[in-house]
Design a protein that fits this description.
With about 80 residues, the chain is mainly alpha-helical. It has 2 domains: about 35 residues, no CATH class; about 45 residues. It is built from 3 helices and no strands. The protein is elongated, with a radius of gyration of 26 Å. The model has no long low-confidence stretch (mean pLDDT about 85).
């Protein structure tokens, strides 16, 4: 078997058959999947962790902004009455 990367064409050629109903271990085993090097995987995990931290910060800021908005709205209504 030649050592080429998994592509959409490979998947289609292996799995698109008119009456094909199951995928067995032989079909799956015939596919080659390229996995990044461990160093690259660690870099990806680090970046995802950084992005998740930013998401958490943004969520906290949005919550604070919503709380401030409610307090301001209450103050405006109280002042108007």
């Amino acid at each position: 078997m030649d050592k080429r990367k998994l592509s959409e064409t490979d998947i289609i050629s292996k799995f698109i058959l008119l009456a094909f109903k199951t995928v067995n271990q032989t079909h799956i085993g015939s596919l080659l999947v390229t996995v990044p090097l461990l160093e690259e995987l660690k870099r990806i995990v680090t970046k995802v962790d950084e992005l998740m931290a930013l998401c958490d910060q943004l969520k906290a800021r949005l919550t604070d902004a919503q709380t401030t908005k409610l307090h301001l709205t209450d103050a405006i209504i109280a002042k108007a009455l």
